[in-house]
Amino acid sequence: MSAFVKTEIKNRIAHIILDRPKALNSLSLDMVRAITAALLAWRDDAGVQAVVIRSTSERALCAGGDIRFFHDAGTKTPQGGSALLEDFFTEEYSLNHLIHHYPKPYVAIMDGIVMGGGMGVAEGGEANRLRIVTERSKIAMPEVNIGLFPDVGGGYFLSRAPGQIGTYLGVTGETIGAADAIAAGLADVFVPSDRLPAMMELLDGTNASDIRAALREFAAPHREAGAAGKGILAAQRERIDRHFAFDTVADIMASLAGDDDPFAQRTLDIMRKRSPLMMCVTLEQLRRGASMSLAECLRVERTLVRRTFEHGEVLEGVRALVVDKDNAPRWNPGSVEEVTPEMVAGFFDSPWPGHAHPLRGLE
């Protein structure tokens, strides 16, 4: 179904191999459909005992959704949407739910860039997952940088990160390395990239009953993960928890402004460049998501993505970052002070009655 998704079964282990290196494996609708079809076919196949998702490129597992497609499809109508755009998000979020509840061990090799939609195909499967990072891993939910919000279940997994780490990552869109991903609960083990070939050889030859336990044998001591990444989150945990505990972005920024520490000032500078509206929407999304199931979070995110394209914030963000590349988005509103609670609340107002929601069948 997609030239960019390869599948194979070796030694009762099924592999999903993303092969769109020039686009850093950005997900298209065809790719989402191909991954979904493979997982559904293997779910009840006795000849498959585990699934591994990986990339042909060391540069990225997946850099997210195809944002140029978002812009092209979103500018076709005055309402900022098209049937293909609607299908993409409905089917992508359904895939995220399928992965999260997959009944077989699910291993994500998070080598290189793993952002946005890439996190959606790597973070699922709580009971059976193994998320492997390397010294090349660059992990982020950077959506506020393009006028979007952390979707693909971000409202669920970010809101469950320790303390206010998830709030920090979602509202700032910052990128982290291996050690920070493990500290945030977004990855499980660190494997040096030079050990990945041997790990794949093990997969091809092992008869181990517990694939995840076998792969953990390749994990380096945690201090090596620390050497591979910045390790900022653990060092700044108290400061992150203090500043990001507030329930408005304005209060968070005011708290940061009163802290002379370089980390606080750098964080404040970053937030001043993000979409004020979508930072506020993201904060509300994460606060709500903390008490929701994954299915509930995905339904909320499906509503949010419709409202975001209607508003046009994401179209402006992608224009500035990818299309015109002027890096000067004209956010609407232009400041956090101009964002009202009513504006934020409107994004959570579902355009569908419950019985007609595109993701009503998720449990």
TrEMBL record:
<keyword id="KW-0378">Hydrolase</keyword>
<feature type="domain" description="Enoyl-CoA hydratase/isomerase">
    <location>
        <begin position="14"/>
        <end position="348"/>
    </location>
</feature>
<dbReference type="GO" id="GO:0006574">
    <property type="term" value="P:L-valine catabolic process"/>
</dbReference>
<dbReference type="InterPro" id="IPR029045">
    <property type="entry name" value="ClpP/crotonase-like_dom_sf"/>
</dbReference>
<protein>
    <submittedName>
        <fullName>Enoyl-CoA hydratase/isomerase family protein</fullName>
    </submittedName>
</protein>
<dbReference type="GO" id="GO:0016853">
    <property type="term" value="F:isomerase activity"/>
</dbReference>
<dbReference type="GO" id="GO:0003860">
    <property type="term" value="F:3-hydroxyisobutyryl-CoA hydrolase activity"/>
</dbReference>
<dbReference type="Pfam" id="PF16113">
    <property type="entry name" value="ECH_2"/>
</dbReference>
<keyword id="KW-0413">Isomerase</keyword>
<dbReference type="InterPro" id="IPR032259">
    <property type="entry name" value="HIBYL-CoA-H"/>
</dbReference>
<dbReference type="InterPro" id="IPR045004">
    <property type="entry name" value="ECH_dom"/>
</dbReference>
